[in-house]
Amino acid sequence: KQEVTQIPAALSVPEGENLVLNCSFTDSAIYNLQWFRQDPGKGLTSLLLIQSSQREQTSGRLNASLDKSSGRSTLYIAASQPGDSATYLCAVRGWDSNYQLIWGAGTKLIIKP
Amino acid sequence: DGGITQSPKYLFRKEGQNVTLSCEQNLNHDAMYWYRQDPGQGLRLIYYSQIVNDFQKGDIAEGYSVSREKKESFPLTVTSAQKNPTAFYLCASSGQHNQPQHFGDGTRLSIL
Fold it and tell me: What confidence score (pLDDT) does residue A22 get?
């Protein structure tokens, strides 16, 4: 059964730093992997989606990588800003279970001004 | 603007009462989902629907019911059989499997 883990659960860094968020999964047979952002009391916003055949995706200051063989994905945030403060969740879509998403519990990121 | 609308934003349930959460999308997506989010946990799938008039149970369907009579609408009923309904409920939709899910702003359900 696929399991998705995000460590650490919380992270606090000064503004301007580059940082990496981690996501690990136990079954490498995935269809795609997605990174989402959630602001307090809000829904989720899709940030990046990486297909199983891809190694990375970029959007602005965000770069997500995927290494299926090691069961890992990282979300790199360059030049962090206070507005980046949010909870970041990753989700893996498998080839079975009707392509359902399996979710990590998220990393709560705080960027200190 | 296309998107997903969930209502109400806050909902209170009395013991023994059924309550219905609304979810409407104008993205022309075939698939719709209901998730439950509890503090410190990942999202858990309650029900999903890949086409009108068809839906499947997710991991935690007990105590919940849904309908999908229209492509745009996927309401969730939290029945009195759900003994621990206090949570944040999120509705999502998607097109093809290789496309991201889009989410509404959620409904927070509490017990009176």
Answer: 97
Residue with tokens 């999120």: B90
Q: What is the predicted pLDDT for the residue at A76?
A: 98
Task: Select the residue from A44, A99, A108 to test the B interface by mutation, using most B Cβ atoms within 10 A.
Answer: A44
Side-chain-side CA neighbours of A81 within 13 Å: the count stands at 4
- Chain A positions touching B60 (Cβ under 8 A) are none
pLDDT in tens, B39-83: 878 899 999 999 999 999 999 999 999 999 999 999 999 998 888
Q: What percent of chain A has pLDDT over 90?
A: 88
User: How far, in Å, are B23, B92, B105 from residue B102 at the CA level?
Assistant: 12, 5, 10
In terms of phi and psi (left: phi > 0; alpha: psi -120 to 50; beta: otherwise), the region of A47 is alpha
Nearest CB to B105 within list A31, A42, A91: A42
The H or E element spanning position A86 is: strand A86-94
Q: What percent of chain B has pLDDT over 70?
A: 98
Mark out chain B residues that contact chain A at CB-CB < 8 A. Answer: 4, 6, 40-45, 48, 50, 56, 58, 88, 90, 92, 97-106, 108
CA angle (A13 as vertex; A11, A16 as ends), nearest 5: 140
Q: How far is A82 from chain B (nearest CA, A)?
A: 22
